[in-house]
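Q: Focus on the chain.
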Amino acid sequence: MLAASVLWGTTGTAATFAPQVGPLAIGAVAMGLGGLLQALVAARPIAHHAPRLRGQRGTVLLGAASVAVYPLAFYSSMHLAGVAVGTVVSLGTAPLASALIERVVDGRRLTRRWSSAAALGLLGTALLCVAEAAHPGEGTGRASVAATLLGVGLGLVAAATYALYSWAAHRLITRRIPSRAAMGAVFGLGGLLLLPVLLTTGAPLIASWPNAAVGAYMAVIPMFTGYVLFGRGLAHVPASTATTLSLLEPAVAAVLAVLVVGERLPAAGWAGTALVIACLIVLTAAPRRRRHAEGPAGAPREEATPVTAGPATAPDRENSTG
């Protein structure tokens, strides 16, 4: 999970090396081609577990639709509000969205520990957004502030869809579908949904070698490789824990945005980033000391056992040896 987060943290900075390519094209090539690659390498397990996938078609379709919407909202958010703000809003609020989904759909209890950590994460996100809105960079007046606010709104959409497809993939894995088949089906269908967007907006990607290189990097490294790692992690932890661990991505993105892109992050922005990291520490370090009392990220006792100890273990072993 953490390795995937580091890879994802490079996407916003990588996108700045293809300034002629719009955010919709970047999102479509990254998640679209990356998702189709996942489906291609997982073709055998997908075919083997097709009956189970058809039995969970509603979850698969929900996850695929979320996969299609997420990159369009995410990269548009970074384009409008900046790499640091777009990433922190999209990823910083995803654990809250994920936990609320699990609370409503699965009945997972929200603990005081999780609530405290979520408050830290939301406060950090708010600080960063306020800092950027008060210092809108090279733009002028209301247009820049409006763009920042719109970017924040799209970041919240990205957070909700990220939480939805993480929940959908985890739900498939816990229902005896191996992670490769679950991720391949969800992301493959999502990639197909993104193809019309790519065909409509992707002309700049083939206009120059640097643009093509950025597109290839985005599809193969952060998206394909990152989500393969993410799928392996989802076989062991709930979606709320997965999205919480991915809070490492905003920290990586913020540092790269400052060091590589040259963005300026005010002191309040750095304080916000520190609060997001504090949220991550609270949700990951503390539960290890009370493993038998709570599950990961403050989950109730019945959720503490890793998924691989349950019904999903057998198909995963079957898939790895087949």
In short: Confidence is low (pLDDT under 50) at residues 138-143, 288-322. DSSP finds 16 helices and no strands in the chain. The first helix runs from residue 2 to 8.
